[in-house]
Write a structure and sequence with these properties.
11 strands; four-stranded antiparallel beta sheet; five-stranded antiparallel beta sheet
Length: 118
């Protein structure tokens, strides 16, 4: 839980793949956006923004994930079962910005990312 005096510090980079038409194979690559959490992390949240679900990849060393709304209220608290990726249903979330905290209980490492619900 965040106290009023606490501030979330994070940075993110977004990669956007735009639609591309390949004349040779008549293939169309779909549009996809994702956020990669920095600070030597392989955690990726996609798509971002999202409507119904998000996929989180690179979480094999994460023990706990907590999603907060923009007001710091806990929306979801999940324990990771040693999986490397997870799909979270966000269809019941209200539109807005959400923060997700990833915690490794072994070494105390904490990473924070954000995603947008459309």
């Amino acid at each position: 839980m965040f106290l009023k005096s606490q501030t979330l510090n994070f940075s993110f980079s977004a990669w956007v793949m735009t639609q591309r038409f390949d004349n040779m194979n008549d293939n169309v690559e779909s549009q996809k956006a994702s956020v990669k959490i920095k600070h030597h992390s392989n955690i990726v949240i996609s798509p971002n923004p999202a409507k119904n679900q998000i996929q989180i990849d690179g979480i094999e060393q994460i023990d706990e994930m907590v999603i907060y709304d923009a007001f710091g209220r806990v929306i979801l608290n999940e324990i990771n079962e040693a999986k490397s990726s997870k799909i979270i249903n966000i269809s019941s979330f209200k539109k807005g910005i959400y923060f997700i905290k990833f915690k490794n209980n072994t070494n105390g490492d904490v990473k924070v990312g954000k995603f947008i619900v459309q």
